[in-house]
Amino acid sequence: MEAYHKVPRRYLGIPVPEIEGLTDQWRADLTLEDRLALAASLWATDIHEARVAAAKLLTQARIRPDDAAWELILSWVSDFDGWALADHASIAGQKRLVADPTRLETVESWIASPHMWTRRAALVMTLPWTKQNHPKPEELAIRDRVLGWCATLATDRDWFIQKAIAWWVRDLSKHDAPRATAFLEAHGETLKPFARKEAARHLES
After folding, report:
1. 187-205, pLDDT tens digit by residue?
2. Cα distance between residue 38 and residue 145, in whole Å
3. pTM value?
4. Are 106 and 93 in contact (CB under 8 A)?
5. Residue 64 carries which DSSP code?
6. How does DSSP classify residue 82?
7. What gap in Å lies between CA 196 and CA 47, rounded to an integer?
């Protein structure tokens, strides 16, 4: 697993479905305060599966109140050092952003971060806004806002950033082809060829 993830930390070899079984039970058994404490403790171990479990504990649409959960997720972002843990934690972050889109003000600042995984998280955490089939005006405004971030990051030559832009635009193209097409017409030549091709995959079929 260490060779696969290319990040030096302790790995236990526990598959994600087993971790999800544990975290589902913990969410059912524990109070919110105890879940937050457990998630913080698990993340602090720096064990791969423990950090996956920490993220899974907070991957829940309804958490009330959720300010502490959001702050805990924010505290993890600077620790991101590989796609797997970053994505598990970012999915937890997606739920909190959808619950309170005003938090996008914080996420927007990430696109200027010197930490590549923080820049990438800005796009991964906002993926839910690519998926609405009948978006409201405020959701369309968020799409345009994040496409602006994608445009800013298009000159970023890091493979993971290029891949994240392609991911965002590709997913958007399945629900809002005109916006995806307009983005590629304006910025496609700035992307690396692999990212441009990936972003346009569903537009070309």
Report:
1. 999 999 999 999 999 997 5
2. 35
3. 0.96
4. no
5. S
6. S
7. 35
Q: Which two tokens stand for residue 126?
A: 């906002």
What count of other Cβ atoms lies within 10 Å of the Cβ of residue 147? 23
User: Which stretches within 83-136 are classed as H helix?
Assistant: 83-99, 104-108, 116-124
Contact 120, 164 (CB under 8 A): yes
What secondary structure does DSSP assign to 170-193, as a single string?
HHHHTT-HHHHHHHHHHHGGGS-H
Q: Of 106, 200, 101, 114, which is closest to residue 143 (Cα–Cα)?
A: 101
Query: In 3-state terms, what secondary structure has residue 31?
Result: coil
Residue whose structure tokens are 């990051």: 153
Over residues 120-179, the pLDDT tens digits come to 999 999 999 999 999 999 999 999 999 999 999 999 999 999 999 999 999 999 999 999
